[in-house]
């Protein structure tokens, strides 16, 4: 029960910060890492106790990044500053997983695009539209989230997609978005947006290579489903 006392009263070998310095971050539990992000607890509750409650209540570390800042901050004992630190750490983890600083990633099949899209969109509690801008060899130039919406939709204007493609000198692009419900099945609205982007891109000399929908551990490629043909013809 001694671990319910203030962390400053613990033996140095038991304190998360000291253990990190001595044994490395990998030696710490999820609870200890979140406690370090929180920095402090609240009255009568240590940072570790608060971290434990957060992880249990939100469904583990996967649940931490799914909440908008205001919702996380509203949890008793968290507040805006602690919520900001936790969400910033979650976002850094996503970006580290999704980026490659040494070589340009070549996207040769839907699985390649789905892997990159999932790294950007995983665990987001709202629908987000992501565009992957490619060069003439289908190598990734830039990945950018163009819009964030609600639990059900994240509208994106085709002109914004085309504007970004021209800015990045990207003749080929892939659209991707997540379904927070976990079901990646395309909706009629998804099909309609894809039709608009296909036609507009063709008129501008660009090409929509695929539209990926990311669910909970699964994904759908509209190209693989035959909805996006190998060659575009303006009709």
Describe the structure.
The chain has 235 residues and is an alpha+beta fold. The protein folds into two domains: 2-96, no CATH class; 102-221, Cytidine Deaminase, domain 2 (3-Layer(aba) Sandwich). The chain has helices at 16-23, 30-38, 47-58, 61-64, 69-73, 79-98, 110-121, 158-167, 188-203; strands at residues 128-134, 140-148, 172-178, 207-214, 219-221. The longest helix is centred in the middle third of the chain and has 20 residues, at 79-98. The protein is elongated and about 70 Å long. The mean pLDDT is 84.
Rg over CA atoms:
22 Å
Mean pLDDT: 84
CATH architecture group name of the largest domain = 3-Layer(aba) Sandwich
Strand line-up in the sheet with most strands: 2-1-3-4-5
What is the number of strand segments? Answer: 5
Proportion in β-strands: 5-15%
Secondary structure tally, helices: 9
Structural class: alpha+beta
Largest sheet: 5 strands, mixed
In angstroms, what separates the terminal alpha carbons? 72 Å
Order of helices and strands: HHHHHHHEEHEHEE
What distinguishing features does this structure have?
235 residues; alpha+beta; Cytidine Deaminase, domain 2; five-stranded mixed β-sheet; 5 strands; elongated
